[in-house]
Automatic annotation (TrEMBL), chain A:
Keywords tagged on the record: Cell membrane, Electron transport, Heme, Iron, Membrane, Metal-binding, Oxidoreductase, Respiratory chain, Transmembrane, Transmembrane helix, Transport
Role description: Component of the anaerobic respiratory chain that transforms nitrate to dinitrogen (denitrification). NorB is the catalytic subunit of the enzyme complex. Shows proton pump activity across the membrane in denitrifying bacterial cells. The mononitrogen reduction is probably coupled to electron transport phosphorylation.
GO biological process: aerobic respiration; electron transport coupled proton transport; respiratory electron transport chain
Locations listed in the record: Cell membrane
Protein's recorded name: Nitric oxide reductase subunit B
Organism expressing this protein natively: Thiobacillus denitrificans
Length: 458, 84, 175
């Protein structure tokens, strides 16, 4: 760690991991409710568990991105953060808002929550992933703007590199596209447009910039490969990601009432979206093979490589699987979507945040790398979580294929709930894989508490 | 430099030829084959001469030429398919 | 840059084949709609792009001998052709739009307008690149030994030309 102010990243990362644990617990509750419908009813109904599961994911990833930005930007800009105090204030505001929101979901009926929080002044609630009450949404904007001010001032007065500029553009995009969530038109087609402009332009647009910048930063640090080489890769990757991702938005327009030509444009461009992810994999392996030094933090290198592979599989391959309009005609909104969602979020965004945490946390705790034992435990957690996620994805894919067959293709189509009964076996298997994932996560958290002498490069 | 000028005139001639066939109201294979061949030659001139990929080491030339051949070949196939 | 050129060729290639195979399901519609196109405007545009590509070749050969100003002049000539292409294309499009035709009219027009517009944007981008190269060349920023920028800009422009060379017969002529 070169600058004292980079330390503000630490609480952000701790909060991220805490909320990650919460997300997984609610995922398990919900996974069980798939097969035991009245589990924990009426205390935690399915819709609430689902909302908590997805909202926690987004919030903890945002914590992770913010922490990563507060660590990476000063180092790249070669100066202290503009205002570490502001960053800390924003941390507590964001954490309080996040916790209050989750408690609100859990203890107040959603309709009452909407009434209490002024949804009748400006209706923004009730849409998937954007369920947050108005004050939370405003809070997210305030926190994001304060962070952007803080980071932009740092970059403006400091060194400008490809990495900190891409990171900053990604974060600005994240904040700007979130503004679409404040517009909730009555026309359902328009509503879907604006909803996708938040959801899609985040995960298949600006988040990829953030991810690319984080991955490039860690790779420079752990491999010692020349900055020029890594920056060239980064530019090509983000250019490809933006071109395919922006026009690829069309793959969400197929069946929402948009003009029919989107079936062509959405299909072709989103079919190319795997390319930037494939390049990220090649990039990561290439850089590690050309490394000029052996970094003692082996776990961070493993996470970085894993990010490339899993992002390509989850976002690239599983996305391509159902992105072409003639296929999507049958698959949209099925368990195939859920399979893709799980592996893409884990492979791309969860893993890149953990890569960053894995690289920076030891440094913030005063050592280049954790003890060999702690690293072994961390690598075990890597394999447990990653393999468990692969199985979750495979089981959901199997469930999806069966569901589509029974419900949409066969001569005597079943109703939704009847088809769900038929795929229950896969839901049980998925729940089992989920338990393995939780064990992996607990091991990961445990690895932070293993003491011992710091590992050295051998 | 005369070479480039010659190639430019060649491209113009081939364009005129394709246009002429269409204006003459011909259709089917009578248009398909000559026009696609003309396009192939035109594309080849642009790739080898204008982009100067001829003599470049490595796969670039063959990738771009391969693209041209593949696209034109499949277009020919699709149009044949539509005729039958 | 070559990576982008290949990616662009891939996208256009997919769309060309999509056109060709979509046509097999609807030959009459495609043939009938194609007759409504302004073929003369298409052929003039082809001549413009081919010529502009030729002028870019001349510009590259000038800078190889270190003649910056002459290189810039040829690039300006090439861009003039490019601008004429854009004007003609816009009038073609506006004619169609005035006739009440848009991308939802039928599959043929979806491809004609969509691909045409997509290519149009590439010509615009190519002009911007050539413009930047011209500016630098005019100020003497390139030399006989170091002119990679000119070559890269030229390669992109030739790609735009190459795509049009396939697009023109495919959409305007073959039936």
């Amino acid at each position: 760690m070169k600058y004292q102010s980079q330390m503000v990243a630490k609480p952000y990362f701790i909060a991220a991991i805490g909320l990650f644990l919460g997300q997984i617990l609610f995922g398990l509750i919900m996974g069980l409710q798939y097969v035991v419908g009245d589990f924990l009813f009426p205390e935690i109904p399915f819709n609430v568990a689902r909302m908590v599961h997805t909202n926690l994911l987004i919030v903890w990833l945002l914590f992770g991105f913010m922490g990563a930005a507060y660590y990476l930007i000063p180092e790249e800009s070669e100066r202290e953060l503009h205002s570490p105090k502001l960053a800390m204030v924003m941390f507590w505001i964001f954490l309080a808002a996040g916790v209050m929101t989750i408690l609100g979901y859990l203890f107040v009926p959603y309709a009452t929550l909407a009434e209490m929080t002024g949804n009748n002044l400006l209706a923004t609630m009730g849409r998937e992933f954007l369920e947050q009450p108005l004050p939370t949404k405003v809070g997210i904007v305030v926190v994001a703007l304060a962070m952007l001010y803080n980071l932009s001032m740092t970059v403006l007065r400091g060194r400008k590199t490809a990495i900190n500029l891409v990171m900053l553009v990604g974060l600005w995009g994240l904040a700007i596209f979130f503004l679409f969530s404040f517009y909730n038109p009555g026309n359902i087609v328009k509503d879907k447009y604006f909803w996708w402009w938040v959801v899609h332009l985040w995960v298949e647009g600006v988040w990829e910039l953030i991810m690319g910048a984080m991955l490039a930063f860690v790779l420079i640090k752990v491999t010692g490969v020349d900055r020029e080489v890594i920056e060239k890769w980064l530019y090509v990757i983000i250019a490809m990601a933006l071109i395919t991702g922006l026009i690829g938005t069309g793959h969400h327009y197929y069946w929402i009432g948009a003009p029919e030509y989107w079936q062509w444009w959405g299909s072709v461009f989103s079919a190319l979206e795997p390319i930037p992810f494939f390049m990220m994999t090649v990039f990561a392996f290439n850089m590690v093979n050309r490394r000029r030094r052996e970094h003692p933090n082996k776990a961070a290198v493993l996470w970085a490589l894993g990010t490339g592979v899993m992002a390509f599989l989850g976002a690239g391959v599983w996305g391509f699987l159902h992105t072409l309009a003639p296929v999507n005609f049958y698959t949209h909104g099925s368990q195939i979507t859920a399979a893709h969602g799980h592996m893409a979020f884990y492979g791309a965004y969860v893993m890149v945040v953990i890569t960053m945490i894995s690289y920076t946390m030891p440094l913030m705790r005063g050592r280049a790398a954790n003890s060999p034992l702690a690293q072994v435990v961390e690598m075990w957690s890597f394999w447990l979580m990653t393999v468990a996620m692969v199985f979750i994805t495979l089981f959901l894919t199997a469930a999806g294929i069966l569901q589509i067959w029974l419900q949409r293709i066969s001569d005597q189509p079943m109703s939704f709930m009847a088809a769900q009964d038929q795929v229950a076996l896969f839901y049980w298997l998925r729940e089992g894989a989920g338990v393995i994932f939780l064990i992996g996560l607990l091991l990961y958290i445990g690895s932070f508490f293993i003491k011992g002498k710091a590992a050295t490069a051998d | 430099m005369r070479v480039a000028t010659f190639q430019w005139l060649m491209l113009l001639t081939l364009t005129a030829l394709s246009f002429g066939l269409a204006e003459a109201g011909m259709s089917g294979s009578a248009v398909l084959i000559p026009v696609l061949l003309a396009t192939l030659v035109k594309g080849n001139i642009v790739i080898d001469r204008f982009m100067a990929l001829r003599g470049v080491k490595g796969p670039w030339r063959w990738i771009v030429l391969g693209w041209l051949l593949l696209v034109l070949g499949l277009i020919a196939y699709a149009f044949q398919l539509a005729q039958s | 840059m070559w990576f982008f050129i290949l990616a662009e060729l891939l996208v256009f290639g997919i769309f060309f084949l999509a056109y060709a195979f979509a046509r097999t399901h609807n030959v009459e519609l495609f043939n009938a709609s194609q007759l409504e196109l302004d073929r003369a405007s298409g052929v003039i545009n082809t001549v413009l792009l081919i010529s502009s590509s030729y002028f870019v070749v001349l510009a590259v050969s000038r800078i190889r001998r270190g003649h910056s100003r002459s290189c810039a002049s040829w690039l300006i000539t090439a861009m003039t052709c490019g601008a004429a292409f854009l004007v003609l294309k816009l009038s073609e499009f506006s004619g169609k739009i005035e006739a009440g035709i848009n991308m939802s009219t039928n599959t043929f027009y979806m491809f004609y307008l969509g691909l045409g517009f997509f290519h149009f944007m590439h010509v615009v981008l190519g002009m911007i690149i050539l413009g930047a190269v011209t500016l630098k060349a005019w100020r003497g920023g390139y030399s006989a030994a170091d002119h990679a920028g000119v070559e890269t800009g030229a390669a992109y422009w030739h790609m735009v030309d190459l795509v049009w060379i396939v697009l023109f017969p495919l959409i305007y002529i073959l039936n």
